[in-house]
Amino acid sequence: MRAFRISITAIVTALALSGCMRTTGPVAVAPQGDLDSMAYGQAGSPPPQAVAAGSGGGAIGALRAAFAAPRPAPTPVIVAEPTSVVLAAQAAYVEPMPARHDAAYHLDAGDRLRVVVYGQEGLTNTYAVGAGGSITMPLIGSVTARGRTTAGLAAAIAAKLRAGFIREPSVAVEIEAYRPFFILGEVAAPGQYPYVPNMTAESAVAIAGGFSPRARRDQVTVTHTDASGTQRFVIPPASPISPGDTVLVGERWF
Questions:
Q1: What is d(CA 49, CA 60) in angstroms, rounded to the nearest whole number?
Q2: Is the pTM of this model over 0.85?
Q3: Which domain holds residue 235?
């Protein structure tokens, strides 16, 4: 009885071993290719076809089926470039017109001048134009300044020094302080004030403390005196004035 059991066990074991060693089906090999060609195919060739495997293919069959399945084309990604949005804004600032500056300024009484005679420390000094329109210097005495420009006065001084004092004098004249202006009428503090280059009638009113409550603010009257005589103008407050001018601020009627 024991020998019979051993025989049955041996037969079952042999059958089991023969079943494990038996192949489940043929294995397909892709011609002239590797895993990349199996997955993506050759350029210009049709997509790979699935290879039928026998039953019980296991992991190798699943891998083969995954490579054989058609792969979906990748979805293109569109990257939008950043755009800048420019908002147009209306400019409310208007550049003001430059004030008129008289480069050929004519000297008169009240101007204070700096006269430089190069190499002559005794002649270089500050001189004021007197009521008679002249300055007085050592050696040459009185020199007329009224009605002349600074360049014209420098030439006149050089001519006098050349006549018996200095052989080749070099003279320069510059304005150290302008003669004052005057402001009258409806302002807080009428009177005489130092002139500032490129001054306007409006800035003159500001120096005088501003308009009074009864002042007319849209125009002023300016009296200007030069070599041609005395003239009177009605101008808007933004107009330029000159040294020695008289600004009159009128009274409004209502």
A1: 16
A2: no
A3: 181-249
